[in-house]
Each structure stands twice: as structure tokens, then as C-alpha cells.
Amino acid sequence: MQKKATIEVSEGFPFYFPEITGVVTVEAKGQINICTVAMHSHVSFMPPMYAISLAKERYTLQMIKESGEFAFHFITGDHASRFREAGLYSGKDMNKFTTFHIPIVPGVATDAPILEEAFLSLECKVKNIVSVGDHEMVIGQVLYEHYDPTMYREDGALLRDHLNVAVHLGGLQFIRVGEEK
Fold it and tell me: What is the distance between the alpha carbons of residues 56 and 58, in angstroms, rounded to a whole number?
């Protein structure tokens, strides 16, 4: 086995990848937006809570603070490049859903758009926002799940033979991992 390299972590940590890519959608004051997110996790089963971390200067974060809600989506690797492209632009300057042909449907409990192409979407109401260094962690209570039943077993486990997720390798590198549906 090759000896591992060791570095002191003082100005960010460059070797935390890979991460499964997620997508956040939000609606505030009649405007909708979308943002790719690498830092996210479930943080509680009861009540169900999901956390996302967004850079403090992100327009999406500003919109979430205004609306008090968001939706988080898991996408297949087949869609990774399109969502990566959408992440290169600010929603202040364009409607990314129209520009990148991203189909959406209305949420059930929130005004956040639900991505038709996501295999799992979580509608969330903001419960807390915590400053964590150069990011803010938004913790949302999951109100509804929208999922593709062909991707899951009855107990909620993802079917291994349908695994096809977008993975962020760092920078602007995204890949598809798993089998095609």
C-alpha cells in the first residue's frame, strides 16, 4: 500500500471529494432559481431534517432566507452536465429553468419548484440557518418526498441495479456513477 500524504488544513481542505451532487430549487417574490450543491446531508430522522451548505454570497441562499423554504433534489448522472452548466450562472441574471430546459412541477407544501428529472426531491421548510465559516448551513424540515418508485425498494432503500448518480469530483468535474436505467 502506498504511503498516504499528509497536509495541515488551514485554508480549506482540497481533498474532501467525491460527493454526490444535489440540486436546490427555491421561489421567492415570484422568481424561481436553481443551484447545484455538493455539501448536503440528512441530519435527523425524527423529525426528518435535511441540511445544505451554501456559500454566503449565493443568490440562492438569499432567496431561501426570504422564502423560508426550499426543495432539495437528487439527480441521475445523465443530467449532471446540464445542471453543472446551470450552476455557472446566477439566477439574478436569467431564468435558468427556461435557458437550460429544466422541467418543473409545483411543490405540494412549498412554492419551491420540484424537478421532474430528479429521482428524489425533498420539500423543506427552513428551521435554522447556521454560519459555518465561509458557508451557511440551512437546516430544513422535510415536509414531503417526491420519488421515482422504480428506483427504490418498498423499505425505501435505493435499488442497487438502478444506481446512477451525479458525483462531483471537485472544481467543474462531474461524472455519472452507476448503471443506466
Answer: 6
Question: At 92, is the secondary structure helix, strand, or coil?
Answer: coil
Could you tell me the domains of the chain? 19-178 (2.30.110.10)
For residues 19 and 63, the model is more confident at: 63
Q: Cα–Cα distance between 163 and 102 in angstroms, integer?
A: 22
* Calpha distance 173→181 (Å, rounded): 22
For the segment 94-139, what is each residue's pLDDT rounded down to a tens digit?
999 999 899 999 999 999 999 999 989 999 999 999 999 999 999 9
Looking at residue 108, its pLDDT comes to 97
Its sign, for the CA torsion 142, 116, 180, 95, is negative
DSSP state of 109: S
